[in-house]
Specification:
single chain, 244 residues, alpha/beta, TIM Barrel, 10 helices, 8 strands, 41% helix, 15% strand, binds phosphoenolpyruvate
Length: 244
Amino acid sequence: MREKLVVGNWKMNGGLATNAELLARLASEWTPGDARKLVVCVPAPYLAQAQAALSASAVMWGVQDVSEHAAGAYTGEIAAGMAVEFGCRYAIVGHSERRRLHGETDGVVGAKALAALGRGLTPIACVGETLDERERGATDAVVTRQLDALIEALGARMRGCVVAYEPVWAIGTGRTASPEQAQAVHAVLRSRLAGAGAGDVGLLYGGSVKGSNAAALFAMSDIDGALVGGASLDADEFLTIARA
Ligand code: PEP
């Protein structure tokens, strides 16, 4: 069954006091409707805080990245097993900021997704084209290359993943892909996934999703939810998206 999810990616934002307010509001105001799940991916130092604040609620939490390694001399990295110890259920892998700023290749992203799955986390694997790639007409080729690398790394375990289409030009820019633009790419991804026996994987859209545009995006046949950056830091906005 296609997983319907709204996932917040706090990125490197937050602080104990502001997190406490935001988490308390999500915990008390989110009631799971229509099988849609709500998830927040918090910075790793706040995992214990998220666990304490959300354990008794319907809101789930996760990490923004995991190492492809299980343990060892990898300074600054977080192992999937560590995230599991704090009750995480999800791990974002291959976010465009990690690909761009940390040089993560398709191969590394596949290895991270495998490491997450190996410890029972659901990877939320991100794919997406830059503005230059879109303007050159290379969108389908880029996202297909990124997805194919994942499928090759994961094989039948691809069915245990969630995929997020996040056009890089729409992330944090206020410029959202139109529902039709997003749906066109989601259809390409869905057909590729179906060819790999994983057609029922949840497909999220990410890139400047807000309360005001979520419903139109969610009305598209291949969009199962959203990966939300900036708007996930505002309880009203994030809950509006989740209920759209
Ligand atoms: C993201 O970082 O995954 C994202 C989609 O950010 P924003 O919603 O701020 O564009």
